[in-house]
Design goal:
The chain is 77% helix and 0% strand. The protein is an all-alpha fold. It has one domain: Tetracycline Repressor, domain 2, CATH 1.10.357.10. Helix 5 packs across helix 7, helix 5 packs parallel to helix 8 and helix 7 crosses helix 8. The radius of gyration is 18 Å and the shape is elongated. The model has no long low-confidence stretch (mean pLDDT 94).
Amino acid sequence: MDRKAQILQTAADLLQTRSFSAFSYQHLAERLGIRKASIHYHFPTKEHLGEALTQHYLDAYRAHLAAIDRQHRDPWERLEAFLDAAAEIRRSGDKICAGGAFQAEHNLLPQRICEGVAALLAHVRSWLAGVLAEGRGQGVMHFPGQAAHQAALTVAALQGALQNGRCEGDELYEAVVGQLRAGLRGEG
C-alpha cells in the first residue's frame, strides 16, 4: 500500500472511531510513524483529506454494492449482504458508519465534504431503493410508500443502530435490524 493509501486508511479508521474533527494530522503522523509534512504533501489541508475520504468511501461502496449485485440475484439475499456490511462495522466494537460519522458533524464541515457525503449516501439509498422495489415487485418485501423513502428509513435506522449500539451494546443493534427485517416481511 502506498503512503497516500495508508494515510487515507488511517484517517478512515479515525473518522469511524473518533470523528472527523476529533483527529488531527498529528494523530495521523503518530499512528503512521511519519512526519506531518508527509501528510500535507498528499493532502495540503484537512478539507482536501475530507474530500478524498468521501471519494474513498463512495468508490468502496460502489464496488461493494456492485459485488453484491453480481453475487446475489434474490432481493432478500442482496438486502442481507447489505445488512452484513453494517454488522461487520458493529462487530468492530467501536466504529460507526462513515456516512453517519460525517453527518454528525455536518454543521462543522466544509461544503465540499458535505456534498461528498450527500453523494455517497444518495448512492447507497438509490441502490437500496432498487433492491426494495424489486423485492416488493416480486411480492417478497412489504412496506408503505415509495421504495426511496423505505431506503432512507432503513439507512437512517442502521446508522442510528450503529451509533447507539456502540454505547448500548449488540442487543439494541440486533433489535433494530430485527425490526427492519420483520417490517419488510410484513410481520406485525
